[in-house]
Write a structure and sequence with these properties.
- The chain contains 12 helices and 3 strands; from the N terminus they run ααααααααααααβββ.
- By secondary structure, it is α+β, with helices and mostly antiparallel strands.
- A 3-stranded antiparallel β-sheet has the order 1-2-3, with helices on one face.
- α2 runs parallel beside α4 and α3 crosses α4.
Length: 237
């Protein structure tokens, strides 16, 4: 907008957030118009919270500028022939979720840099699933990647080359993934999205070994402490 637009005025008054936003935009990978439009939407809907959650807003804007690049668990659902779960969250839904979940986030959504938070908001997990994750795993947030093993391995799915699976016909949600299980990709999907729902920067990772075998695992940032001026962490797998 012009120099008198509400967002331009806000950015002029909040120079630290403004500079971080412009530094975060990578012209080689980000869609500039979409980033700024999304940031403007956040400003319009959350004008009082934006300054305090500037890095979260930046992370949402530079991640959700291209919804097609967001981590998508839909291929896992289709492979397991599971039915659709609850409605997924979009970028604004991710921002809203972490505002309302601040009571259990220990300052993560407020104090983590956007470089960490892009790995927290990079998913569509429905609100009900996130709330389930908080109810069932908040006390286990330390080394959360271990919940990978909570998903029972579906040897039927492996031996049938996904022709049949215990998730067949079940709603695709975190509860059922833990109950019915799946192969490694479902274990990694579960662990990454449970972690992200708890404010842990995490990612589903997959690769092919020299033998030709495929595998999937989870990587995450293990946060020891987060304050306005410091972060102590390790990278775990």
């Amino acid at each position: 907008g012009d120099s008198a637009s509400p967002l331009r005025i806000w950015l002029a008054k909040n120079r630290e957030v403004a500079e971080e936003l412009f530094l975060a935009i990578d012209p080689a990978h980000d869609k500039l118009d979409a980033v700024l439009k999304l940031f403007a939407q956040i400003h319009e809907q959350y004008p009082k919270q934006l300054a305090q959650y500037g890095n979260l807003a930046i992370a949402v804007a530079v991640t959700w500028d291209d919804p097609g690049a967001i981590y998508d668990y839909e291929p896992h659902r289709q492979r397991a022939k599971a039915t659709e779960g609850e409605a997924p969250l979009d970028g604004l839904g991710n921002f809203d979720y972490f505002l309302k979940a601040e009571g259990v986030m220990q300052g993560r959504a407020r104090f983590l840099p956007w470089e960490f938070l892009v790995h927290v908001v990079n998913h569509r997990t429905p609100l009900a699933d996130r709330q389930w994750a908080v109810s069932n795993y908040l006390s286990q947030r330390a080394m959360i990647g271990k919940c990978y093993s909570d998903v029972p391995y579906d040897f039927q799915m492996l031996s049938s080359k996904s022709a049949t699976a215990k998730l067949n016909g079940q709603a695709f949600n975190l509860t059922n993934i833990k109950t019915f299980g799946g192969v490694c990709s479902y274990q990694a999907d579960f662990a990454s999205r449970v972690g992200q729902s708890l404010g842990v920067p995490a990612a589903y990772v997959s690769g092919q070994a020299n033998s030709g075998d495929h595998h999937a695992w989870v990587m995450w940032v293990e946060l020891q402490s987060v304050t306005p001026t410091s972060i102590a962490f390790t990278l775990e797998s």
